[in-house]
Amino acid sequence: QKCRMMWMSWPRLGDEYGSGELRLTVEQNIIIPNVENSKLEALLQEPLLKDKFSPEPSLLMKTLVACTGNQFCGQAIIET
């Protein structure tokens, strides 16, 4: 339940601070486009960004990527 609520927060953040959309990158990042400068500080104070998904992650978290396995990922060593 807690995990579901966390993921349901992303659309709200997109609506409240951006243009109502979210973008996912191939590096497994979530982008909230079109955030006005006047709303940026409030967005960064949101608990989801402060506690769980920092815009300034540690080196380990910044470079960590999940892989689906060698059937879909050329760098995987595990069979899927």
CATH topology of the domain at 2-54: Alpha-Beta Plaits
| Spatial gap, N to C terminus | 28 Å
Q: Tally of extended strands?
A: 2
Strands of the widest sheet, in order across it, are: 1-2
- So what's the oligomer here? single chain
Helix fraction, binned, reads: 40-55%
- Which structural class best describes the helix and strand composition? mainly alpha
Output the number of helix runs: 4
Assigned CATH architecture of the domain at 2-54 = 2-Layer Sandwich
Low-confidence stretches: none
> What percentage of amino acids are in beta strands?
5-15%
Protein name: ORF NiR
Keywords: 4Fe-4S, Heme, Iron, Iron-sulfur, Metal-binding, Oxidoreductase
Organism: Psophocarpus tetragonolobus
InterPro entries: NIR_SIR_4Fe-4S, NiRdtase/SiRdtase_haem-b_fer, Nit/Sulf_reduc_fer-like_dom_sf
Task: Give a quick summary of the entry.
The chain has helices spanning 2-17, 37-44, 47-52, 59-63; strands spanning 23-24, 30-31. It is mainly alpha-helical. β1 and β2 (30-31) form a beta hairpin.
Notes on the protein architecture:
The chain is mainly alpha-helical and 80 residues long. The protein has a domain at 2-54: Alpha-Beta Plaits, CATH 3.30.70. Helices cover 44% and strands 5% of the residues. It has a two-stranded antiparallel sheet. The longest helix has 16 residues, at 2-17. The protein is elongated and about 45 Å long.
